[in-house]
Specification:
The protein is of the alpha+beta class. Helix content is about 35%, strand content about 25%. It is globular. Keywords: FAD, Flavoprotein, Oxidoreductase.
C-alpha cells in the first residue's frame, strides 16, 4: 500500500470540497481499500465519509423510500421500512457478499463504483430510482454510463437514493461462487406505469432489457419471459461463463424473478 493521508469531514459539503480538490471518497472501502493494498490504486488523500451523520438513514416519503448513501447493506436488509415497502430490495441487500461485506459496504459506495457485477445498480435501474447528490438529482436511466463509470462529476458525491415503491418486485442472481458477485442477476419491478427489468453481471454495465419489459408488460408471467429470445452478442464471456450461458441465465433468472414476485 502506498502512503496516503486521510480527512474526516463532518458534512457532505466539506467532503465534496475535498473530493473536488482531488481527494478520493472512502465509503465502505470494499473495493478501494483492496485495490490500495494491492498497489493498484494510489489516491494520495482519502476523504472518509463514515462520520457524516446526514448520509445515513432510511425513511419512507410518500410512495418512495429514501436511503442515505452511507447506509450499510446490513441496515438495508434489516430495515422494517424497506422490508415492508420494497422487500425485494431488502432481500437483495441481505445476499450481497458475506457478513463482513454487508457490515461495511454501503449503498452509495456500490452505486458510485458501478461494478459490472454488483447487485445494487440493478435495483436502482429496475426501480427507476433517483440518485441524489451534493449538486443535483439524477434519474437512474441517466446515471450508469459504462464499466465502473457513472454520470457523477468530479467532486460530486451521492448523498441518498430515492426508490419508488413498486406493485411487486423480485431480484434473483446466479452467484459466482468465489466472489459472490452476480454472474448474472435480474431485478424485475412492476409499476402501474409498466414493468422494468434490469440485468447485472452479464455485460460491461448494468442495463435494462427492452424485449423482456415488452413481453412482461403484455403478460406478467414466467411463460412470457421464457418466450423472449436473449441475444448474446454483446454479453460478457470469460473463464466463468460464455456469452451464450449468460444469455440463458438472463432468461432463467427473469422467469424465476417473475414467479417470486407473483408469490
Amino acid at each position: 500500500m502506498y502512503a496516503f493521508t486521510i480527512e474526516r469531514p463532518a458534512s457532505a459539503a466539506d467532503a465534496a470540497k475535498l473530493a473536488a480538490g482531488g481527494a478520493r471518497p472512502l465509503a465502505g472501502g470494499q473495493t478501494l481499500l483492496a485495490s490500495m493494498k494491492l498497489r493498484l490504486a494510489d489516491p494520495g488523500q482519502l476523504v472518509d465519509l463514515g462520520g457524516i451523520a446526514d448520509l445515513t438513514g432510511i425513511k419512507k416519503e410518500g410512495d418512495t423510500v429514501v436511503i442515505g448513501a452511507m447506509t450499510r447493506h446490513l441496515a438495508v436488509a434489516n430495515s422494517a421500512e424497506v422490508q415492508a415497502a420494497i422487500p425485494a430490495l431488502a432481500d437483495l441487500a441481505a445476499h450481497i457478499g458475506d457478513r463482513q461485506v454487508r457490515a461495511m459496504g454501503t449503498l452509495g459506495g456500490s452505486v458510485a463504483n458501478n461494478d459490472p457485477s454488483a447487485c445494487y445498480p440493478s435495483a436502482v435501474l429496475a426501480l427507476g430510482a433517483t440518485v441524489i447528490t451534493t449538486q443535483r438529482e439524477i434519474a437512474a436511466d441517466d446515471f450508469f454510463t459504462g464499466m465502473f463509470s457513472t454520470a457523477l462529476e468530479e467532486g460530486e458525491l451521492i448523498t441518498a437514493i430515492r426508490f419508488p415503491i413498486p406493485k411487486r418486485a423480485a431480484y434473483l442472481k446466479f452467484k459466482q461462487a468465489a466472489s459472490r458477485f452476480a454472474l448474472v442477476g435480474v431485478f424485475v419491478a412492476q409499476f402501474d406505469s409498466g414493468v422494468r427489468v434490469a440485468v447485472t453481471g452479464a455485460a460491461t454495465s448494468v442495463f435494462r432489457h427492452a424485449d423482456l419489459e415488452a413481453a412482461l408488460n403484455k403478460s406478467f408471467t414466467p411463460e412470457a419471459a421464457a418466450a423472449v429470445k436473449i441475444d448474446a452478442t454483446d454479453l460478457n464471456a470469460d473463464i466463468h461463463a460464455s456469452a451464450a450461458y449468460r444469455a440463458n441465465l438472463i432468461s432463467v433468472q427473469t422467469q424465476r424473478a417473475v414467479a417470486k414476485a407473483l408469490g
